[in-house]
Amino acid sequence: MKPKTIIEKIWERHVVHEEENKPNLLYIDLHLVHEVTSPQAFEGLRMNQRKVRRPDLTYATVDHNVPTKHRNVISDEIAKKQMSTLRQNCEEFAIPLADINHPDQGIVHVIGPQLGLTQPGKTIVCGDSHTSTHGAFGALAFGIGTSEVEHVLATQTLWQAKPKTLQVKVNGKLGLGVTAKDLILAIIAKFGVNVGTGYVMEYTGEAIRDLSMEERMTVCNMSIEAGARAGLISPDQTTYEFLKGKRYVPEGDAFFEAVQKWEEFATDEGAEYDRTIEIDAEEIEPQVTWGTNPSMGGPISAHVPNPEDYSRPADRSAIRQALEYMGLEAGTPIEAIAIDHVFIGSCTNARLSDLRAAAEVVKGRRVHENVSAIVVPGSQTVKLAAEAEGLDKIFTEAGFEWRSAGCSMCLAMNDDVLQPGERCASTSNRNFEGRQGNGARTHLVSPAMAAAAAIAGHFVDVRSFSNQEVFS
Amino acid sequence: MEAIQKHEGIVCPLDRVNVDTDQIIPKQFLKRIERQGFGQFLFYHWRFDNDGNKRADFIINQPAYEQASILVAGENFGCGSSREHAPWALLDYGFKVIIAPSFADIFYNNSTKNGILLVKLSEEEVAIVLEKAKQGKYTLQVDLETQTVTDNDGFHATFTIDSYQKKLLLNGWDEISLTMQLEDKIKAFEQKAN
Ligand code: SF4
C-alpha cells in the first residue's frame, strides 16, 4: 500500500459522500461552540425549523466576552445578551454547556484537550480560526464561519475540498530557553503569513517530537497565522500519555484499543507531501514581533527593520504602515523598546506549563513601575491547578493581577482593553492593528519573554535575564 | 443567499496587502446576534477617527467611491479571524465583488456562502486595476458564467473558480437543504463508524 500522511488518512476515513466536480462531504466528529460566532447559526436553524443533528457531538462554552475580573458583573449589555443567547440556544437544542460559573469553563481550545474531547484521528471544527490548536493531538481541526457552523449543527457534516499537504520539518533541537512559541513565530517570520494558504500543515522533525503536548498546542494554534486552516502533529507516546485518564477518554482495556486505533493515523514512513519546508531549531532565538502581522518579527537580538531595505514595493509600504502604527523607528534595537502592559493569556499560551514558565522568571522579582501586568489562565481548571501550586501568589506578589479564565486581552472584547498608543508584550497570537484596543500596539512573545519584559520594563533576552540575581 | 451571475459596478482601490478581518470589522462590533446591520462598522478604524468623524483621506470615504460595489485589494485579503461578520459587513455596505491576487481560506468560504463573488486575478492584473481605479470613477464588468473581468477600455482578464462554488453562486442555493437530501448517506456513515 502506498504510504500516506495523517492528513490523507483522516480525510479518507471521514468522507460521507463523493461526487465529481464537487468537494467531499466530510463527517465531523466534534463541534465546539462559543457565544460570538453561533447566535446567527442557531437563528438560521429556527427560521428553517431545523434541529441540531448530534447535540452529543457538540460542546459549548463562553470565552470571548466573559469578564475575567468580577466574574458576574457584565457591564456590556450586548455581551450579556450574547451569553444569555448561547445559554438559551444550548437549552433549546440540548447542547452541553460549560457556562460562566461552571468548573469546566475556559477558552474553547484549552478545554477541549483538557477534557479529552480532542483525540487523534478526529475531525474537529469550531467557529473560531484557532481551532487548529487541536491538531496537536493528530486531529484534523479547523475554523469555520457561522454559515458553516449552522451547516454542521444541522447535518454534522461539511463540504470540503481536499486540502494540499505541507510538511513543516523542524530539524535538530531547540536551544535552552527557546520555547514552542519562539519556534512557531520563527517559522512564520521566515516563511510568511501566506505560506500555508490552501494547505493543511503537518509539523515533523526532531524538535517537534521533543515537545510536550502543551507546547505542541502552542505550535498548532498559530498554523492559521501562517495561512493554513489546520496544522497537525502525528500522535505518539507523548499524546497517549497526555490523554490517559482524561474525562472523555476511554479507560482500561478500551484505552489500549483506542491507542491502537490512534496509532494507525500517524503518517507512514515515506509518505509524500505536496510541499515541504524546513527550518533548523538550533538557529532559533527568543522572538519578538515588531509589526502588525505575526510574520513581522524576529529574534530579540535584532533591530526594527528599515522598509527601504526591501525590494518588493508591497513589502516596503506594508512595513512603513506597520512601523507608523507601532510608533517605532527603523534601526531601534528590539531590546530598547519600552512597554506599558503585559498580557499572559490566550489559547496560545495560557496552559499550566505556560504559567509555570512565566512564574519561574517572575519569582522574587517586581513588575517594573511603568508596567501593568495581568495573567489570565486559559481555563478555570488551569486556574485552580496553578493556585494549588502557589503560582498565583508568585504573580500577585510580583505585582501581576491574577484573573479568571477567558480570552480577555487577546482580542479585548470584554473590559480588558488597551488605550490608543499603549504598548503590550502579549503571549497571544495576533498583533493586528487594534486587536487589543483601538490604536493599541501588540508585540507577540512567549510567556517567559513576557514575564521578563514585565520585570525589566522593556524587551530583554530571557536567557541572560534568568541568571541575574539582583534586579532593580 | 442571493444569486450572482453578472455584476457591473464602480471599483474602489484598497491598496494594502494582508487586510485582516480585525480591520474589516473590529471586534467591538461582533456582539450583535443578527446578520444584518454590520455595514456601518466596515473598516471602522480606517473610516472614522476617534471622535467618530469620517477620515477624508481613507479611500472608501472619497466621493468618487461612494457608490462602489467592487473592492480591489492586495494579496491575502481576509486573513485572521474566522468571523463571518467580515463578509456580512462588506455585503451590507454594498460590496458584491472583491478582487485580489489571493484570499485567506476561511474568508473565501464565508464570502461565497453569502453570495459575494471573490475574484482571483494575477498580481499584474490587480496592479492595473488598482491604478485605473485610483484615477477616479472606474467601472468593471464581472461575468461569473464566462469567468471574465472587463472594462470599457480594453482590459480583459479571466479567473478560475471551483465549479461547485460557481454553481452555488450562480443559483443562490442553500447548501444545508442540499446536504439534507443526503441524510441516508450520513446515517449509513454513522452506522458504519460505530
Ligand atoms: S484566546 Fe484569542 S485567539 Fe484564542 S479563541 Fe480566544 S480570542 Fe481567539
Q: Which distinct ligands sit in these coordinates?
A: iron/sulfur cluster
- Neighbour order of strands in the largest sheet of chain B: 4-3-2-1-5-6-7
What is the strand content of chain A?
15-25%
- How far apart the termini of chain B lie comes to 36 Å
CATH superfamily of chain B: Aconitase, domain 4
Low-pLDDT ranges of chain A = none
In words, what does this structure look like?
The complex is a heterodimer of chains A (472) and B (194). Chain A has 472 residues and is an alpha/beta fold. Chain A is built from 16 helices and 19 strands. Chain A has a five-stranded parallel beta sheet, covered by helices on one side. Chain A has a five-stranded parallel beta sheet with strand order 17-16-15-18-19. The longest helix of chain A is centred in the first third of the chain and has 17 residues, at 77-93. Chain B is of the alpha/beta class and 194 residues long. Chain B has a single domain, classed as Aconitase, domain 4, CATH 3.20.19. Chain B has eight helices and seven strands. A seven-stranded mixed beta sheet of chain B has the order 4-3-2-1-5-6-7, sandwiched between helices. In chain B, a hairpin with a 5-residue loop joins β6 (148-150) and β7 (156-158). Chain B starts with 5 loop residues before the first strand and ends with a helix. The mean pLDDT of chain B is 94. Classes of the chains: A alpha/beta (472), B alpha/beta (194). Chains A and B meet through α2, α3, α5 and α11 of A and α4, α7 and α8 of B. Bound molecules: iron/sulfur cluster (SF4). The site of iron/sulfur cluster has 13 residues of chain A, from loops.
